[in-house]
């Protein structure tokens, strides 16, 4: 293998390798170079937890929605940190935000809405759902999530 051969790691391995580094908190703005904004992606995923099993489950969810998993930004938000939704909007410019185990108030959204209800705010559609671990083990929750995702990506 020469030095220009790219190595592609599965998301589950990346999640394990960087589990302590994928945390985006209230002081993260100072660490982000605004000039290096990520490519605009239609969907942004926020989650409160991510192990290898949950990463594989999330990947299957995204693929079922016909999303390119490598092009969807994923942010792991520590439960004890808060972040401004405006900071996320500015950095990623999403049209859709999927939140797994993240309540609207965690990203300082000025609105509250129940799980599985698609809510529009600032021209962005938000979908809040239980955590990936809860979804993974509950068939009824998976069904509710899938119904919402079908409406969102119809």
Taken in chain order, the helices and strands follow as HEHEHEEEHH
pLDDT below 50 for ≥5 consecutive residues: which ranges? Answer: 19-40
Shape: globular
Going by helix content, strand content and strand pairing, the class is alpha/beta
Mean pLDDT reading: 79
How many helix segments?
A: 5
Q: Got a strand count?
A: 5
Strand order of the largest sheet: 2-1-3-5-4
Fraction of residues in β-strands: 5-15%
State Rg: 15 Å
Distance between the termini: 43 Å
Percent in helix: 25-40%
Summarize the biggest pleated sheet: 5 strands, mixed
Describe what you observe in this structure.
With 154 residues, this protein is of the alpha/beta class. Helix 1 runs antiparallel to helix 2. Strand 1, helix 2 (52-64) and strand 2 (74-76) form a beta-alpha-beta unit. The chain has five helices and five strands; from the N terminus they run αβαβαβββαα. A five-stranded mixed β-sheet has the order 2-1-3-5-4, with helices on one face. Helix content is 31%, strand content 15%.
Fill in the keyword field for this structure.
single chain; 154 residues; alpha/beta; 5-stranded mixed beta sheet; 5 helices; globular
What's the helix and strand layout?
Elements: H1 11-17, E1 43-47, H2 52-64, E2 74-76, H3 85-92, E3 96-100, E4 118-121, E5 124-129, H4 132-137, H5 139-152
Helix pairs in contact: 1-2
Quick overview:
It contains five helices and five strands.
